[in-house]
Amino acid sequence: MKKLMNKAQDFARETIEGIILAHPESLKMVNDNFRCIVRADERKANKVAIATGGGSGHLPTFLGYVGYGLADGVTVGNVFASPSAECMYEVDKAINNGAGVLHLYGRYGGDIMNFGMAEEFASLDGIEVEEVLVTDDVASAPKGEEDKRRGVAGLFYAYKIAGAAAEKMYSLKEVKEVAQKAVNNTRTMGVALSSCTVPEAGKPTFTIDDDEMEIGMGIHGEPGIERTKLKTSDEVVEQMLNRIIEDLPYESGDEVSILVNGLGATPLEELYIAYRKASKILEEKNIKIYRNYIGEFATSMEMAGLSITLLKLDSELKELLDFEAYSPFFQQNRK
Amino acid sequence: MKKLMNKAQDFARETIEGIILAHPESLKMVNDNFRCIVRADERKANKVAIATGGGSGHLPTFLGYVGYGLADGVTVGNVFASPSAECMYEVDKAINNGAGVLHLYGRYGGDIMNFGMAEEFASLDGIEVEEVLVTDDVASAPKGEEDKRRGVAGLFYAYKIAGAAAEKMYSLKEVKEVAQKAVNNTRTMGVALSSCTVPEAGKPTFTIDDDEMEIGMGIHGEPGIERTKLKTSDEVVEQMLNRIIEDLPYESGDEVSILVNGLGATPLEELYIAYRKASKILEEKNIKIYRNYIGEFATSMEMAGLSITLLKLDSELKELLDFEAYSPFFQQNRK
């Protein structure tokens, strides 16, 4: 394991301490607990609050999307491990502006259980809580079982859309509905070229030969749909994008946003080579790219590989996607 | 070699094509040549133009810093290879607003020779050209020979300062002077944990054992000052930062900007763990962090490791550092 770290058990805490030291104007801890992070800027009365959370190791997911026009608070677990329900509850209490809280997170067993318990705790305090699970990973369950899929880079779109809706003072029911619409319109496929190493495990999560890749692998190394010899970028992008397009399906005349996301070790150059092919395929199919995002949005530590995400847009989603948003890790249209 | 690419010889071209497809409102080619990229937004008459350039494989350096409040044009070489003088000359002609051009780039042999030839070509056309070489890499030559050092992540500060000065309508002489002041006040040290692979070479640039690291390694794999067993992050940061601080030296009472830069494969989490220690060391030494930057600013493809850069500030440099700047790869204070 080659990491620039101190003790493995301190990895998540020291990461968060560094983030808070770097960005005190934007982020702060609740009760001095590094697992409970909320926005430090001014709060808006009666704005719906958005809570997220999950394991560490995916920056800028999840904590990086706590900011204006995004989420209001996050609960931070150890690397690839769900945080506790108690911390989620503390975040809910800290961010509630009187209009309720939306739990918005990726569909993973531990997180579902813990956010469910946190919802019960919060309800006892009279805080209204709704939840939307992000389920964009096409490879994780077959068509027809979309609600059994995992959440991956499509989380970004869910934060962006729901966060904008909340800033525009949508009600909790309305924020939930538009977040669910965004999830319903989002599909992602990933490809991994190398493993990552969880600090406390100390060895790679999986092994993969020097000439192999795995299409559809999850962001914690969950098995994909095909392990194959390394193909060209164009071939990989075509295979992934076609699978995405067929799944929703995205159709001629549709407008989409595309996210080409690096999993950690993949150079930005390779993401743009992938974008080049993806944009050509979409043009051929008469699917119009309304807005693109290219970079690292949801990572798996030092895993090499990338994912492609499409979000099908309508006029409401376009307006929310275009809305101002900023955090220490993401900026768009900041005024 | 595990890369998501097509033919190795197409790597740089396909990268740039992807970038231009993704960001046509910001960047465009000169004469349909992917090696000559300039700003696509509105030009300001009599604004000093800033040209940079160098090999591919370092994104967001160099091309990522072509934008408002940054550089105006870039010449793009193959991976880790200098672009040609002819292309540099084409960029100079394309970006000159009548107030002359500053060649601002890292001190590497091929680039020095080619920018020198381009300067001669441009001068024959009556374009006034000045140059500033970025020489921030402390490990690349001893103290007393600062002008023999290589340019690494400190390039970012040179673009940020010179670009702001140009937007504020400083003269060519003034832009050159303040860019040189920024370079004189900037020091960087890096550490590498793994090699990168140049696509056309097809094998790692250097070998390093699984339990080793190399302090002071350059961004093309140039030898560093110490190869050692892997140390803790805190130890590495302390060693690098002390070397930087002693070199200028940075002193009690100074105000600085700090840049913690990932070399490619290093997770953002590890950059923040490094920032945590760096900020504590600076606080102990009564050196105040005025503004921090943490992320990937100058990479070496998929190399694992990071660098730390300090820029000593005065009131002029603070004003220029705070100035609005944006490109598809960097945004600060965008209005």
UniProtKB/TrEMBL annotation, chains A, B:
Protein name, UniProt field: Dihydroxyacetone kinase subunit DhaK
Classification via Pfam families: Dak1 (PF02733)
Record GO terms (molecular function): kinase activity
Gene source species: Candidatus Clostridium helianthi
Keyword Kinase: yes
Keywords from the named record: Kinase, Transferase
Highest taxon of source: Bacteria
Domain DhaK: 7-330
Stored PROSITE patterns: DHAK
